[in-house]
Amino acid sequence: MITIYLGLGSSLGHKEQIITDALLEIQTWGSGYKVSSFVYSDPWGGVAQNQFLNVVCSFQVPKKEQFGNASPQHILEKIQRLEQKFQRTRLIKWDDRTLDVDILLYGKKKIQTNDLIIPHPYILERDFVYNPLLEVFRQNTNTLNTRDDLIQYITDIRNSNCSIGCTRDI
C-alpha cells in the first residue's frame, strides 16, 4: 500500500463545512483514511487577508494503482475537480480561496514535473501543515513520532533519486 498525505485549507465561505465536505469526498479515494485536528492559521504568502482553516488527511491505495487510477497525476486531477466543485479560483497566487488541496507526500516518492512537486516544497516552512502532518503520521506509524523524525523523513525523500519526472530541483 502507498500512503498519500493531503493538506487542505480554506479562507473563504463556510470554512468548516467546506473542509468537512471535501474530506468526505477524499475518504472515498482509498482506504485507511486518517485526519488531523483542524488548525486555524494566519494567511501565508503575503496576499490572502482572511484566516485559514487547515487540516491534513491521509489514505492508502494499492501499490499496483500508482500507475493507474491512483497515480500522482490522477490524484492531482481529482484534487483540481474537487477544488472546482467548491468554486476555487486561481487569479492570484496565495490569495484567499474557498478550498486549496495539496499533495504533501505520495508514499516515499520524489516527484518533480512541471505541475507537481512532491514532497510539497513548503511542508517544513508552514507550521499549519507540518504539525497536522505529524499528527496524522503518528496515527499511521510508530516510527515517526517527533518533529525531527518527520524532518529527516522528508529530507531523505528530497535527497533521493526522482521516482517520476525530475524536470526541476526542489
What's the CATH H-level homologous superfamily? 7,8-Dihydro-6-hydroxymethylpterin-pyrophosphokinase HPPK
> What count of structural domains?
1
Described by the principal axes of the CA atoms, the overall outline is: globular
Count the helices. How many? 4
User: Which radius of gyration do the C-alpha atoms yield?
Assistant: 15 Å
List the helices and strands and how they pair.
Layout: E1 2-10, H1 15-26, E2 31-35, E3 39-41, E4 52-61, H2 72-85, E5 100-106, E6 111-113, E7 116-118, H3 127-140, H4 147-159, E8 164-165
Parallel strand pairs: 6-8
Antiparallel strand pairs: 1-4, 1-5, 2-4, 3-4, 6-7
What does it look like?
The protein is α+β, with helices and mostly antiparallel strands and 170 residues long. The chain has a single domain (2-165), classed as Alpha-Beta Plaits (2-Layer Sandwich). It is 31% helix and 25% strand. It is built from 4 helices and 8 strands, in the order βαβββαβββααβ. The strands form 2 sheets. Strands 1, 2, 3, 4 and 5 form a 5-stranded antiparallel sheet that branches. A 3-stranded mixed sheet has the order 7-6-8, covered by helices on one side. A hairpin with a 2-residue loop joins strand 6 and strand 7 (116-118).
